[in-house]
Amino acid sequence: MLGSFLNGYTFWLLLGLALLISEFFVPGLVAAFFGIGALAVGLLTLFGIIDSLAVQLLCFALISLVALFGLRRHCTRWLKGMVGGRAEDDLDSAGLLNQRVTVLTDFVDGAGDVQLNGAKWDAESSEPLRSGDTAWVTGFNGIVLKVRSRPDGSAP
């Protein structure tokens, strides 16, 4: 009885569904491909194309691995989307780039404080800046602004 269940299409179809459902609880986009392999073996067994357990296991392994290594990269990109290659201006949703700031503290070792829109910000600069100077935001790293004494595109 158990041997016929393991060789039967019912086992493979149930295993495939269980693996696909498990992907919702333990995401990682791995179990889904083994679920695809199990469903494929279940259908091949249902239609009588394969019948022995050894061939079923071999087909399961081959189909699952081909699906995993052949499709995972494409599916991951599709599920997560692509952000790479966007211009920095597109990433500046807060409107920080090229904003004028007032230097609040002298920059020591390239770090200091600036004021932007009435708020104090931590900032970094490769130029020596003094309290009271005006600077411009050229970039940011998290909540730390990168500033310089001239706006981008101006002559030195």
TrEMBL record:
Domain NfeD-like C-terminal as annotated: residue spans: 95-148
Would you say which domain of life the source belongs to?
Bacteria
Q: Where are the transmembrane segments?
A: 53-71
Q: Does the keyword Transmembrane helix apply?
A: yes
Q: Which InterPro entries match?
A: Membrane_assoc_protease (IPR052165), NA-bd_OB-fold (IPR012340), NfeD-like_C (IPR002810)
Q: Where in the cell is it found?
A: Membrane
Record keywords: Membrane, Transmembrane, Transmembrane helix
- Which Pfam families does this chain map to? NfeD
Q: How does it sit in the membrane?
A: Multi-pass membrane protein
Is this entry keyworded Hydrolase? no
Q: What is this protein called?
A: NfeD-like C-terminal domain-containing protein
Native species: Halopseudomonas pertucinogena
Species lineage: Bacteria, Pseudomonadati, Pseudomonadota, Gammaproteobacteria, Pseudomonadales
